[in-house]
Amino acid sequence: MNKLKIFFWHCSGVNRTLLEKCPTDSTKYVGIGATIFFTGLFAALAGGYGLFTITANVWWSILFGLIWGMMIFNLDRYIVSSMRKQGKPLKEFALATPRIILALLISLVIAKPLEMKIFENEIKGELSVMEQELYARQEGQVQSRYAAQRKQITAEIEKLKGEILAKENRRNELRKIAQQEADGTGGTGKRNPGPIYKIKKADADRVEQELEQLRSASNALIQAKTNELAQLDATMGTDITALDQSKLDGPAARMEALDRLTSRSNAIYMANLFIILLFIAIETAPIFVKLISNKGPYDHLLQIEEHGFNVQRIEVMAEVNSKVKERAAKHAETEREYVNNRLDISLNNN
Fold first, then answer.
1. What is the secondary structure of 210-258 as a DSSP string?
2. Are 86 and 92 in contact (CB under 8 A)?
3. 46-78, pLDDT tens digit by residue?
4. 7 CB contacts (<8 Å, ≥6 apart)?
């Protein structure tokens, strides 16, 4: 138990020699150290899982997780250990604001991979939907490349068929007129076929010949256009078959899937929000504990220790400055003596 307490003291970044003189502050720094340790542990898990989603390599993920966790651990340890209690809450909070912002950023970075792990099953389902949507977009893009050409060929086929249909309607109309002339129900109204009937029958026969010629020419064109359309559809089908139905499983895709889930489901949104808030609370807890706690014996001893160092530093600097001034004075005196000697020599020579 004593070793565990010392370990958490080390995690909090305190001076063990000074803290052992302040047993009343022992529990506070054990709690701060434990919070920093578990924050580093969560960071290691998050970093390892984050890399595993990219490389799927267990050993590299473990190595990266350990490095990332130690980096976050040391950063938190430095943030907390560098804060000083001065008995001025507002000033302390102002000084701690950059550290709090940094802690918030760290907590968000730590939380994201663990959020994706917690909602892994839901994310997998959403990734399948995203894969289908991506494939549908790719298929639509392929179809759009051939759409104009297909539309043109189809329009040409319909035009040729329309010309044949129009000619058939004209033939049928002329046949009907000739028949009505023959049975007396139209035209001159005479029942027996006469010259007028023959003329109308000739018109119908002429259009019939034109229709046969048009059919012969147009059907060949229609068949060619139909074959061209079938070939175009086959090429489009080949391009669609060749599409790579990508497997979305990277961190960016998972974050997008989680974002889509939270935007659609209030339950997932609230759960995700609480997870983020939990990690923010864990990451900022050591800082706020240090801020809200009273200035204890350890803080006084630390202040005395640092003040003693500052006094010693000032004394050493004052001593160095004194020696420098003394050397400068001696040098100036030497310069004056040299100048005076040179003047005396000059005067004697004159």
1. HHHHHHHHHHHHHHHHHHHHHHHHHHHHHHHHT-------SHHHHHHHH
2. yes
3. 778 777 777 778 888 888 888 888 888 888 788
4. 33, 37
**For 150-168, what is each residue's pLDDT tens digit?**
888 888 888 888 887 887 7
Chain-centroid distance of CA 111 in Å reads: 15
Question: Rounded to two decimals, what is the model's pTM?
Answer: 0.54
Tell me the DSSP string of 275-303: HHHHHHHHHHHHHHHHHHS---HHHHHHH
- Both tokens of 32, joined, read 């701060």
Q: How far apart are CA 29 and CA 24, in angstroms?
A: 10
d(CA 138, CA 47): 34
Please name the residue that has the structure tokens 């020599």.
345
d(CA 45, CA 313): 44
Residue boundaries of the structural domains of the chain: 2-118+265-295, 150-232, 296-337
Structure tokens at 137: 């977009």
